[in-house]
Amino acid sequence: MNPVLSIVIPALNEAAGIGATLAALQPLRARGVELVLADGGSCDTTVAQARPWVDAIVDAPRGRALQMNAGAAQARAEALLFLHADSRLPPLADVLVLQALVGGSGWGRFDVRIEGDPWMLRVVALMMNLRSRLSGIATGDQAIFLTRQTFERVGGFPAQPLMEDIEISRRLKRLGRPACISARVCTSGRRWEQRGVWRTIVLMWRLRWRYWRGESPARLAEAYR
Fold first, then answer.
1. 199 lies in a domain?
2. What sign for the dihedral angle of Cα 134, 136, 142, 147?
3. 64-116 residue pLDDT tens
4. Sign of CA dihedral 158, 162, 168, 173
5. If we measure between CA atoms, which residue out of 44, 191, 14, 79 comes closest to residue 22?
6. What is the pLDDT confidence band of residue 178, given thresholds at 50, 70 and 90?
7. Is residue 198 part of a domain?
8. CA-CA distance, 212 to 222, in Å (whole number)?
9. In CATH, what number is assigned to the domain containing residue 62?
10. What backbone phi and psi angles, to 5 degrees, belong to 201?
11. Residue 147 pairs with which residues in a beta bridge?
12. 225 occurs within a structural domain
């Protein structure tokens, strides 16, 4: 019997936190949700730690979009959810996703909460959620979900090194508006804290602006790194 939902988790050298991420998903797994880890060539213990906690491990080319596509190809469910390795879903996320998809939405996302000490992270999350509701564009931090039919119809995630979440959202919007689930995914604020919250905000807005103007994702990825 196929699972009701497959959660695809792209990972690369996430040994420090992958155990906690996957442990938090075990109640969903007990209810019939499939967990697929798409590893991009980790050189730490990510795969070894993940093995007891997942249903499948997929070796994929490095790159989040490529890893998610490879994981989706191996997943068995007709409903797919893509979760970052440093994020945690809200309780009953599987029920919320299936209700949204059965209700007619071909795709959707959750609201997000960013964990960390700086108070500005709460503002960043608030603005991300508001922007997403107004624009219909979802970010990977918001745990994008969709039916397999919808995923295949838009050709999966575009094979680009950055902004793959923005691009797939643009394609999905042509099919319909996303379901916006107000329950929150908790995601790590580590990249904001490491680079500085304000510096990261400015960087991301500049990258988005350059992307909308047509600059190549490869050049943007260099700037991001």
1. no
2. positive
3. 999 999 999 999 999 999 999 999 999 999 999 999 999 888 999 999 999 99
4. negative
5. 14
6. very high
7. no
8. 17
9. 3.90.550.10
10. -60, -50
11. 79
12. no
Beta pairing class for 33-39 and 56-59: parallel
Which has the closest alpha carbon to 184: 98, 137, 135, 126? 126
If we measure between CA atoms, which residue out of 82, 76, 91, 85 comes closest to residue 109? 82
pLDDT digits (tens, 9 = 90+) for 121-142: 999 999 999 999 999 999 999 9
The single residue listed with the structure tokens 């998610």 is: 68
pLDDT range class, residue 217, cuts 50, 70, 90: confident
Question: Tokens 């939405």 sit at which residue?
Answer: 105
Predicted pLDDT at 43: 96
For residues 24 and 178, give the distance between their C-alpha atoms in angstroms, rounded to a whole number. 26
CA distances to 13, 52, 115 from 141, rounded to whole Å, are 18, 25, 12
What's the CA gap between 106 and 101, in Å, rounded?
A: 6
In a domain, 208, yes or no: no
Q: Alpha helix locations (H) across 31-145?
A: 46-50, 64-74, 93-102, 120-135
CA 104, CA 225: separation in Å to the nearest integer?
39
Of 142, 99, 87, 118, the closest CA to residue 195 belongs to 118
